[in-house]
Design brief:
Largest sheet: 4 strands, antiparallel
Structural class: mainly beta
Number of strands: 15
Number of helices: 1
Oligomer: single chain
Amino acid sequence: MEMRQHEEYISSMAIDENKKLLLTTSGDGTMGVFNIKRRRFELLSEPQSGDLTSIALMKVGKKVACGSSEGTIYLFNWDGFGATSDRFAVKAESIDCIVPVTENVLCTGSIDGVIRAVNILPNRVIGSVGQHLGEPIEQLAKSHTGQLLASCGHDQKVKFWDISSLCSVVVDDYRKRKKSGQLKALSSKALGGREDFFADLREEAEAAKEEQEEESNSDDSD
């Protein structure tokens, strides 16, 4: 079966629990809905201002969350795919990938290298799970136990983060938003904290020392 409803590339896909509807996001700014069982195209959503880059089902399948190249999360009702029901601008350059952690919380990966935990309805950025030190994040994946999050970025590293605390997070709808513009770190290494920073420095220093010793040994042997 081949269908060509999107005008641009397809960036991500998701399927419902009944394996009936395939949802797609595209560079043309639309979300596509395809009925797999009936082998037919259903509809395209209204186009958004930026590329839609990622998609996830939330709220026990009642909501669909789409990330975008402009750093906004667009929400669709399950029975209203044509138009967004809500949108939430995350303070990020982009949202390139998302993965659901619970029915209310998802993690986003961005071009700025930061992994953010975000609560959906009420829409809140909970904090930073981790980062790839300024390198764009390509993909996120959750372990089958839900305790760990894996991330890969342009730094050629796969990193693992403990997200077990996110399973018990409850965001109060009436909680006052903090006026501070700083992103809360959910671990000591989440924002490239001192421990992580100096650990990287130690690794670089040790590598440089080993190179010097190797060069010294080669000179002595000559």
